[in-house]
Amino acid sequence: MLFSEVLGSLTRRGGGEPIWTASAPDDWLQGRSIFGGLQSALALRAMRDLVSPELPLRVLQTTFVAPVAGAVSLHAQVLRAGKGTTHAEARIVAGGQTTTLVVGVFGRGRPSKAEVAPPPAPVPPPEQEAFVFPFIPGLSASFAQHFEMRFRSGPMPFSATRSPPTWVVDVSLKDRATTGEVHVVAIADAIPPAAFAMLSQPAPGSSLTWTLEMLVDRFDTLPLEGWKVHADVRAARNGYTSQLATIFAPDGEPAAMSHQSMVVFG
Predict the structure, then answer these.
(1) How far is CA 155 from the centre of its chain?
(2) What are the angstrom distances between the C-alpha of 142 and each of 27, 169, 208?
(3) Distance between CA 174 and CA 28 in Å, rounded?
(4) Cα–Cα distance between 43 and 60 in angstroms, integer?
(5) DSSP readout, 7-64?
(6) pLDDT digits (tens, 9 = 90+) for 50-85
(7) CA–CA distance, 247 with 220 (Å, rounded to integer)
(8) Which residues touch 236 (CB under 8 Å, ≥6 apart)?
(9) What are the tens digits of pLDDT across the range 189-204?
(10) 164: alpha, beta or left, given left = phi > 0 and alpha = psi -120 to 50?
């Protein structure tokens, strides 16, 4: 089931408090839970039912509270609608408990003398050939079959490096839809934790919290192929890691910045 098809299954029920429902098949699982990028994208789509499409997404903050799989229910609301900025919230709920909490900040652009562009995308060493992450049923995360990821530079996963890892990974989403903010959310979360390079063998790893800052207002002129993720592990201790990443569009322009707090055991 394509990413756009899962998002297309999101249905809003009427009545009192609005509730959205969707169903994610097993091929979108990441261990016991739905792929985090898909959870955030579903929550964003629900919030978009309440927020004007004229307001670009600026920040998406996600807290992954508990695993969730299969059919999901979402509750969304606008927290505040100001003159230029709107805050909204969406929760994925299972068994009466919140499993995922997402806050979106939407805002129109305004004049400002503060203009700072992130550094350009790094150029991989010419001697390092791109390595395609293979999809291995039973070993790879199920959702990974919907992406093509080419490892361009940095220490390989499970190579037991002792230096803080820096990765450059080319990411493409296998879908037929026009590129939108929800697709960038999925692409930004697709790569494995870069801290895997510090391990000697496969081990559990997942996100606890995730902040994604959008740097582009529109994405519909960009393809779903050829995105680049430049990720750095900035800190790691007691199984908890801090990973920063810049997501570059296929034209080389920085499109988003990501900060994930992760658990990586092993």
Answers:
(1) 22
(2) 5, 19, 19
(3) 13
(4) 10
(5) HHT-EEE-SSS-EEEEEE-GGGEETTEE-HHHHHHHHHHHHHTTS-TTS-EEEEEEEE
(6) 999 999 999 999 999 999 999 999 999 999 999 999
(7) 16
(8) 164, 195, 198, 242, 264
(9) 999 999 999 999 988 8
(10) beta
